[in-house]
Amino acid sequence: xxxxxxxxxxxxxxxxxxxxxxxxxxxxxxxLIGGGFFFLLGGLEALIIRIQLIKPENDFISAGLYNExxxxxxxxxxxxxxxxxxxxxxNYIMPLQIGARDVAFPFxxxxxxxxFFSGGVLLNLSWFTGAPDAGWTNxxxxxxxxxxxxxxxxxxxxxxxxxxxxxxxxxxxxxIVTMRAPGMTYMRMPLFSWTTLVTSILVLFAFPALTVGLFxxxxxxxxxxxxxxxxxxxxxVIWQHxxxxxxxxxxxxxxxxxxxxxxxxxxxxxxxxxxGYTAMVFATFLIAFLGFMVWAHHMFTVGxxxxxxxIFAVATMAIAVPTGIKIFNWLFTMWGGSxxxxxxMLWTLxxxxxxxxxxxxxxxxxxxxxxxxxxxxxxVVAHFHYVIVGGVVFALLAAMHYWWPxxxxxxxxxxxxxxxFWTFFIGFHLTFFIQHFLGLMGMPRRYWVFLENxxxxxxxxxxxxxxxxxxxxxxxxxxxxxxxxxxGEKAPADPWDGRTLEWTLxxxxxxxxxxxxxxxxxxxxxxxxxxxxxxxxxxxxxxxEIHMPNSSIVPLIMTxxxxxxxxxxxxxxxxxxxxxxxxxxxxxxLGSMLYRSLKDDHGHHxxxxxxxxxxx
Amino acid sequence: xxxxxxxxxxxSFQREKNRDEMRQQIITFALMIFFTMIAFFAVMMGxxxxxxxxxxxxxxxxxxxxxxxYFMHMKDKGHEIPAALIYGGIFVTALVIVTFVAIIxx
Lengths: 616, 106
Description:
The complex is a heterodimer of chains A (616) and B (106). In chain A, 67% of the residues lie in helices and 2% in strands. Chain A has 616 residues and is mainly α.
């Protein structure tokens, strides 16, 4: 019913619907659109970087622009593409998997999205006036002394996006702790929901460190404090510590949901339950725990001393153990299963060796003595692209193929999916495998040009050719989306013979998700019902009124307020008149908060009659 | 006519529990005020700071414990996960403090 209703409405009605929505599914789609847009933007920046490095002493772009390009590529891909795309999936899928009708705080959910989006827009608007150019890690003192407003945009943009991510993380924790369906105990939760919980806990603990770091940076740049100014008794290393206390858990924030996605796809397409479910949950927690104690492996060459370096080196290598447990569990899940190879499964199968290579170079980098050789070379670049592209991006693309029918009611085209996979997969290895060797031969990261006849020419050319393959693959994937939207095959409720609760609902699900909350009788609840011949879930409650939250435009208005205030903060250094923007923006934001606090909004009820009238 | 005949019993049980709860709250509240007074007098009497500072810190930790466990009901059933998250947060914070004290200003 919801599809026909949507088609009848005009464009402005749909737009208004999305601007005011608090429905976790629509917020999830907004995250996917926002994250997808920034992913393409970050990809474009990557392509420009590779074109600049196609030959020795190239002058495709200037040195300053190159610095802005690498900074924006890293920042965009981590904060504005990978994180939001994963959050979009979590938003859409996790409540369906645990049998909830929405997240715990729907208003907060919408606010989280809009804050992320406005932060991303703010950051990218800096392209018109000079983008940040101090690297995505933004190390002091380079960032404090960087002229212009580029780094200010970095600080304010990430502050906004970070606040959005933090509140979404809290939202997911509360949702999973309090809103699981009857019978859905913790140890019956699908792995993707588990990793969402653990990731959210990481977000909760890691992002405050970034917030503090960004505030210190903001005060140093805008209000003449000296946290990072050695001449006045500050310490530049504080920034590095704060950034990496956040930054290392952030890479686990990215990879754990990816692990969760693969742990859903592999059992489904092997038609076997996940091997070692308990060990998988345990390994997830162990990775999260260890993830907090390894940040200084990014700083081995800072001069922390041999004791600190050794401790962090050992902790770093220890992470290979739980990760290895996971890799073997996936292999054992596939072992003896009747495997279906489609696009989702191809990305998954490609992930296993690609990610393992990235993990292996990770252990190499974790050896603190050897790291003095690898540090800040292309070896590092190759390593983290192997884990982030080979892990997170592959997971995202696999998840798109896997959950697209559930989210949009149509199945992505298999042929185009496979074409995109093979070109992207080949391009990925072509681009990054050779970079290991470029790094070992001494090519440093972040350099604008390299000289000819130093053994770097061919490697860089191959790498750039690979980047074009990846671009082609991405374009094919975008074409696939457009094609599917226009004439894709309509998806049934359960196109993959699935195992978890989201496949019990129509594709796409009704806005209240579950007409009656399901009774969960074990791990892979739908599969249990299938094997016992029921084929559908037993309801845990009689058909009754459903209480749903009301839509609201307040999250958007509040965000616009913060956006205006951020602009004011950035430019008040030049002219005090910009303080007006700070006051106006904060007035709008705080006024929205006051309105939200004082006005009671009890939501609405969907009556029993309405529910009975709707066909399943 | 299947009225619950145990209503009175449950109520009296509940009343008993409420009274206990109230007694605990008042005792904790009194203790916290007492601790605060100790802290004040310790500073006012000008005792050497090597003794006062650890004392204040200990008193503060105890008060935070009271706050969480009695006033915010962390001692009750069903608060295991918030408790785990709070301890996780304390762990991370401690890690950060250790870093900044031990590594940066070695």
